Amino acid sequence: MLGLKLPTDPRWVNIVEKNIEEILTDHAFCEQKATSTAISLIVSFPEYTELVQEMTALVKEEISHFKMVHDKIIERGWVLGRDRRDDYVIELLKFFPKGGSRTTQLVHRLLYAALIEARSCERFRLLSEELKDKELAGFYRNLMVSEANHYTMFLGFARQYGDKKEVDAKWQKLLEYEAEIMANLGTKETVHG
Ligand SMILES: [Fe+2]
Ligand SMILES: [Fe+2]
Fold first, then answer.
1. In the Cβ-directed half-sphere of 39, how many Cα atoms lie within 13 Å?
2. CA-to-CA distance for 12 and 161, rounded, in angstroms?
3. What mean pLDDT comes out for the span 74-100?
4. Which band of pLDDT confidence, cut at 50, 70 and 90, is reported for residue 193?
5. Ligand 1 centroid distance, CA of 100 (Å)
6. What's the 34 CA to ligand 2 centre distance in angstroms?
7. In the chain, alpha helices (H)
8. Looking at residue 131, what is its pLDDT?
């Protein structure tokens, strides 16, 4: 449904289940980064009016997700820890060459965002289906739907602002590259680990 080439091994959920505090901490910062990404797209590409409008709405939605996760942390008697290193995102960034036209840069940032939304959505779906903690499973089910919509929006903007054929070809290459990264992951209790 998301075009991802390599599904996450469901055993990843068993790892997550042993350390809910860790996944919630990492997840809270994923929502913070999604908020920051939306703000930074507004700052970098202010002349794309439709994008700015959608990113403004997205900032509100992602920061509300951050609060939802933070509330879960508080409910369970924990305190938000420091941000975790995201090896997945570090590897993903290596796919995109530096430079290029302004449109190319925009397309790259949109595809990068689309992919992170898609993989997050896939991980949330797995959590919603496999977690023994049904309250938390329901929480992830709702978030999964939001992230699927974000994935569609970012990919749609990339196709709208870039050359559709080139964008589609690049997206396919990116999906293949991402599958190679994922082959070495699924071992940590983080959203993309
Ligand atoms: Fe989110
Ligand atoms: Fe999102």
1. 11
2. 36
3. 93
4. confident
5. 29
6. 6
7. 11-17, 20-44, 49-75, 87-93, 102-130, 134-161, 164-183
8. 95
